[in-house]
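Render Molybdopterin synthase catalytic subunit 1 in 3D.
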Amino acid sequence: MDVIRLLDIRDSALSVDEVFSAIGDHAAGGTTIFVGTVRDQDHGKPVTRLSYSAHPGAAGELRRVAEKVAADFPITALAAVHRVGDLELGDIAVIVAVASPHRDEAFAASRRLIDDLKGEVPIWKNQIFADGSTEWVGACD
């Protein structure tokens, strides 16, 4: 079975249960799940909502990032999903998950996966602040 079990960029709500189910593996002794949510402030400025946009090539870049993580770590399963469109406070924006025989590798691979997704996959965040101003952020948080 392929180590990369679920990759998606979608405009509908994300499910932790879906991601956890996708990476289930009897060879795994450690599973990590990172859930990124919309927070109510950024750099001390009140945020009211966000909107994410993705480049048409973002899915291919997400696959490239996932393949690199899968090649660099002894993992049994990996998943990553990111939301696009309008999100409200508390909504889930991104979920990454990794299963591995041992917890250290699961934590390290999960950290690399979210960091590389944020840094390399062309998904942009438009923050809408309480004062009506907006800010584009070059990579997702």
